[in-house]
Structures are given as structure tokens and as C-alpha cells.
Amino acid sequence: MGKYIGIDLGTTFSCMAYIEENGQPVIIPNSEGDNTTPSSVLFEDGTTVVGKEAKNQSIMEPENYEQFVKRHMGERDYIFATNSGEKYSSEAVSGIVLAKMKADAEKYLGDTVDGAVITVPAYFNEAQRMSTIDAGKMANLNVIGIINEPTAAALSFGISKGGDKQQTIMVYDLGGGTFDVTVMRFDKDNITVLGTAGDRKLGGYDFDNKIIEAVIAEAKEKGIDVSSDPVAKQDLQLKAEEAKKALSSKEKTNIMLNVGGRPFKYTLTRDGFVDMVEPLLFKAVGSMETACDEAGLEYSDLDKILLVGGSTKMPLVKDSIEEETGIIPSSEVHPDEAVAIGAAYHVLNALKNQQKNKQEDGKEDFTNAMNEYDIPEPVKQYSFTDVTSHGIGIICSTRNNQEINSVILPKNIQVPASCKNQYATTVAFQEKLYIQVTQGEEEDIRYVTVIGTAEIEIPPREKIVEIEVTISCDENSIIHVRVYDLDLQKDLGEMNIDRISNLSEEEIKENQQRISQLNISGE
């Protein structure tokens, strides 16, 4: 039997871990010996380079270099096109990164990887979660579960350092491209999520961009157009990240560029950087307030604020948290590795969930896999309860024929969850039900997202028919819809949702085959 691992699939860096038989978590290094792998891909002639080497070479071929695709997961129309005309979806690029990581893990472990738990931001919607699972499939990776990143970090903290004391903790997770803040309660061997908020497009990338914007603006004043030079622009992307990191220990740093043969120097001070990113910190504070409001708590009710994600290494992030809450944030877990470790801890729960679901469906038995996955009692005893990050509903018509969003499964309800509501057909002799599944809390359909559509046949009758729609959310926060005919007292079954933002099974298989044929390198 092979190994099961946890993967933190990050916007800028990714990380892997597994749990040894003695219960100790182990970070799996990549083939270059690093604990994290840049989530970067460079498409060269005959070779697809992933990781640090791709990032290092990006300045030479910026048009063939792709990164930050996690921010585009669940966007059906997003395509990266190489200079030679090759086209890749965000799922395919992520699949290439995962394929490299899977190969590195198998090389390090000396065994096959039979399955993995992959982490996602807590604020990821259903389409983005499905895209992550699809990326795993493309990498020929058996995705046995999805877990929210703050929850994974909390598992890592709870199992290693939590103790028996009841605590209320806020996990502040600022990564390379996404931001989550989650309030949760620790009670011995259980973690309960109380409230979550965030921004899927707020991360270190945005802090870098503030520097980039300032550099481009000052260069333009001196008659130098950085934006028109792809090589200089990619060089600036790399140097902006370096400058940001340098300011963690220095008061100022210089960014040196060569634009079309013209040298340019930009001096960045720590105070200047703080002024640049103040709007970003303000957005993060807003999410902190929202998470506490949803949990029904004040900052004074928190016992600890736990920092997770590489971007929390910036002193200004810690300062803004302390200024807002009066609490000095804690760095008790490794910001780059805690999420992957938590995902590895979650493997047993994920296998249990698969076992339960397979037994309910009358399919294969996972008992042997669970028995052979030898985990000590402290890990086995730990459990957690997560919540929905968005409301889920359907579009329906009022008596005045106005279309509205009807929320069935509310936001912030514990998962797995199932809720139902009653509706009626619109005309007599109706033969089909057409349902648009939505994500969002507003009644106005302009402010919600249609995540999928579904159609199901119903027996036609001479009258308006009452039906019951049940929406459930499973352990991975994937949505399922069932319809019950109240007139006939008959279950019409689960609807097959055509997820608007996701790829078809045929497209997934095509990309799986395509990725398997790539010559993927990282050295």
C-alpha cells in the first residue's frame, strides 16, 4: 500500500507533508531539496519547468511563464497561452504543479502516493473547490479530501500545541494570493469553526503590485516605460517581491532595473511601503471584523491570534493586527508549513468520509486503507467542524414574476449540512424543472453567482405542482441538489448539476493525458 499526503497548493508556493507512524509530521522536500515549491510553470520547447528554476528563468521568457493561477481557479474563461500557441486552463497549470509535487513525493518516500488531501482558502466558492479537485485529477492524483487552509493550520496547532485548555482562536491566514480569517473554538480534541471571512484576491501578490505600481509611475516621470518592456516588467515582479522581504529587516532597499538599455534605480523605504499598502491592511481588518461578527464575539473574547501564510512575516501585518485588536499575534506554527501538516493530519478523517460515502453508495470498501494508515491515538481522536463560507440557493419567481435568489443553505452553517425549502411549478402540464443553483446571500440576483444549472423531468399534471428542493453540502463543501415531488410523495432523485465555471469530465481526461505526456522538470 502506498502513502497518503497533505498538499498546501498555494498561490505562490506549495508544500507537502505526511505523518510518520510515531505521529510526527514530516515535510516532504521537493527534488531540489526545498521544503516549498514555487507554484510557477515555464513552458519551454520540449520541457515544462516547474518551481524555483521556472521562476529563475522567467525573466528570459516572460511570455511562456505562468504563476498566480490559483487566483483564477473556477474561472471557466481563463486561458494561459504560450508563445507557441499552446493553451492551458488554470486547472491544467495547477495540475502540472501537482504532477511535479506528486513525482517528488514518490521519489522521497520511495513509494506510490495513493491519495492526497489538498487545502483551499476557506473563502473559496464551490466552483473553485471543484477546480482544485479537477487539477488533482489532471495530475493523476487521487484527491481524497479538501480542507480549508485555516482549519488545516488549526489542526496543526491543536494536535502539536493545543493542549486540553479551551481556547478561542482567530487564524489570520495571509498567503501569496488569498486571505482568510477564521474564528474557531478549541475544546480538548475538537475544533469548531465559529465564523469565517476573507478575500480570494488579497495576498502578498497585491503587496508586491503596490511596489510595482510605484516604480512604474516614477520611471514614467523620467521618460522610462517599464510596462512596454516584458523582460523588465518580469524582472520588476521578481525584484518587488525581494524588496518587500528585505524591508522586514531593513529600513530601506533599492530596486535596480535595466529598461531597454537604460538603468533605473528606485529607493523604497519601510515607511513608504506602509503608506502604499494601507488600503490592503484596511481590507484585511474588515474581514477580521466580519469573522468576529459572524462568530458573535468581540476581539476581547479571543485567546490568541495565530499567524499563517508567508505574507504574515511582514512586520507591518503584525503591527496592524495588534493595533486593531490589542492582541500580539502568535507565530507558534510555521507560516509556510502548518497548512500542509494540517492537511496530512486530516487524511484519516478524509478516508473515513470516503468509507462512509462508499458504503452508502454500495461501492468499494476503504476499511483496509484506513487500517493500514497507522496513526497514533492523539491524531485519531482529533475532530473538527467547519462551516459554509457562502449561502447556497436557487433562483425562483415571485407571484409578480420577479426573479429572486432564494437561499436554502445559509452561510456559516456547520458542514456537512442539508436544508430544504418548498416551491411550486410555474404552469400546468410542466414536464421539466430547470434550476439555477446560486451562491450568495442577497435576494437580488444581480449580487449572487450562478454556480450551475440542472434539469430534471417531472410527471406532467393539470395543475401547479408543489416540490421540495434539498441542498446539501458535503465534507468537502461540494454542493448536491435533490428534488421531492410533494404531490406524488416521490423522490425524483439527485440532480446532475452542470457547473458553469468548471470543466467537463471529457476535458479533465484530455488534460490528464496531456499532462502525463509532458516532460516536467524542476532542476
TrEMBL record:
SUPFAM superfamilies: Actin-like ATPase domain (SSF53067), Heat shock protein 70kD (HSP70), peptide-binding domain (SSF100920)
Entry keywords, A to Z: ATP-binding, Chaperone, Nucleotide-binding, Phosphoprotein, Stress response
Keyword Phosphoprotein found: yes
GO molecular function: ATP binding; ATP-dependent protein folding chaperone
Transmembrane regions listed in the UniProt entry: none
PROSITE patterns, per the entry: HSP70_1, HSP70_2, HSP70_3
Alphabetized InterPro entries for the sequence: ATPase_NBD, Heat_shock_70_CS, HSP70_peptide-bd_sf, Hsp_70_fam
Function description: Acts as a chaperone.
Family stated for the protein in its record: Belongs to the heat shock protein 70 family.
Protein name: Chaperone protein DnaK
Species this chain originates from: Hespellia stercorisuis DSM 15480
